[in-house]
Amino acid sequence: MLTLYDHPNSSNALKVRFLLAELGLEHERRTVSMATPRPADYLALNPLGGIPVLDDDGFVLAESQAILRYLAGREHRDDLYPRDVRDRARVDEFLDRFATRLRTPFFRREAVMLGWTLARGMSAEDAEPEKAAGIEPEIAGNTALLDSLVGEGGAVLGRFTIADCALAPVLFRARTTGYDLAPYPRLDALADALLARPAWAAADPAL
């Protein structure tokens, strides 16, 4: 049995649930508080405290990008995480670029819209949506850069892969919180395609 330690409002957990739904894998969900410090029993599984963690019959794995790679490999889904070394490198390149550079600016806007704080996680009481209008011009260059890096036709790299699973929660949050993607046509088309997939609805998306 697969067990996913997650939280409905975690975008990192959501990307894993998206892939689990694409793979048709049954799993148990166990909710972990987003407030810090994390519970001691959870820190025993993941000393860094990040959400999510996957437990596959005693094999415990943290870090959402690593979990995406593991699940695709576990199911021998070369279409989602290619076996060919160069095709796989392109997926890894995007995942690394996204995690190390491109994700953080989007989260600046999400934090004020959704009320994220380190101490309490997401809380409507901490939301400051009026600040989003000032943040959007500051992150426009990053959004345009991401738009230039994704492919046309409704997939990051030309066909659906785990790279799309990683990006979908960010596009979902952008759309749901009113970030206008129309000036970024590839991202706008990608959001249309990814959020229309049956597995996306099955992943139980939440902010």
UniProtKB/TrEMBL annotation:
<feature type="domain" description="GST C-terminal">
    <location>
        <begin position="84"/>
        <end position="207"/>
    </location>
</feature>
<feature type="domain" description="GST N-terminal">
    <location>
        <begin position="1"/>
        <end position="79"/>
    </location>
</feature>
<dbReference type="InterPro" id="IPR036282">
    <property type="entry name" value="Glutathione-S-Trfase_C_sf"/>
</dbReference>
<dbReference type="InterPro" id="IPR010987">
    <property type="entry name" value="Glutathione-S-Trfase_C-like"/>
</dbReference>
<protein>
    <recommendedName>
        <fullName>Glutathione S-transferase</fullName>
    </recommendedName>
</protein>
<dbReference type="InterPro" id="IPR004045">
    <property type="entry name" value="Glutathione_S-Trfase_N"/>
</dbReference>
<dbReference type="InterPro" id="IPR036249">
    <property type="entry name" value="Thioredoxin-like_sf"/>
</dbReference>
<dbReference type="Pfam" id="PF02798">
    <property type="entry name" value="GST_N"/>
</dbReference>
<dbReference type="Pfam" id="PF13410">
    <property type="entry name" value="GST_C_2"/>
</dbReference>
<dbReference type="InterPro" id="IPR040079">
    <property type="entry name" value="Glutathione_S-Trfase"/>
</dbReference>
